[in-house]
């Protein structure tokens, strides 16, 4: 399986509001985090939700984000959010080795 990112890579979750079903919550769009794990390649749920075949498969990653970077006025801490994000929602940042 070919992947665009590797564990430890810094990524940005792209901002988009397509007029159809999406699996990426608005509260994490535009935020940066790090790839924690690669789950594998799966049929695209955004296509499947509209009767498509979900192909080609797309890579699903576990992304770790600092809570203080997500929520305004979040008390300084080491709290994190782990969230599954499909590859087509991720962009490389300066901290990305890929």
Tell the overall outline.
Answer: globular
- Would you tell me the overall average pLDDT? 89
User: According to CATH, what is the topology?
Assistant: SH3 type barrels
State the helicity in percent bands.
under 10%
Which properties best describe this structure?
mainly beta; five-stranded antiparallel sheet
Write the layout of secondary structure elements.
Layout: E1 10-13, E2 32-42, H1 45-48, E3 58-66, H2 67-70, E4 80-86, E5 90-92
Antiparallel strand pairs: 1-2, 1-5, 2-3, 3-4
Q: Could you please describe the fold and organization of this structure?
A:
The chain is mainly beta and 98 residues long. The chain has a single domain (10-92), classed as SH3 type barrels, CATH 2.30.30.50. Helices cover 8% and strands 35% of the residues. The chain contains two helices and five strands. The chain has helices at 45-48, 67-70; strands at residues 10-13, 32-42, 58-66, 80-86, 90-92. Strands 4-3-2-1-5 form a five-stranded antiparallel sheet. The longest helix is centred in the middle third of the chain and has 4 residues, at 45-48. The chain is globular. The relative contact order is 0.31. The mean pLDDT is 89.
């Amino acid at each position: 399986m070919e992947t665009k990112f590797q564990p430890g890579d810094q990524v940005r979750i792209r901002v988009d509001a397509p007029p159809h079903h999406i699996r990426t919550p608005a509260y994490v769009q535009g935020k940066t985090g790090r790839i924690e794990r690669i789950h594998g390649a799966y049929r695209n749920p955004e296509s499947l939700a509209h009767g498509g075949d979900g192909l080609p498969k797309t890579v699903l990653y576990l992304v770790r984000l600092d809570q203080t970077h997500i929520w305004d006025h979040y008390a300084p801490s080491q709290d994190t959010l782990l969230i599954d994000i499909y590859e087509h929602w991720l962009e490389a940042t300066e901290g990305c080795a890929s």
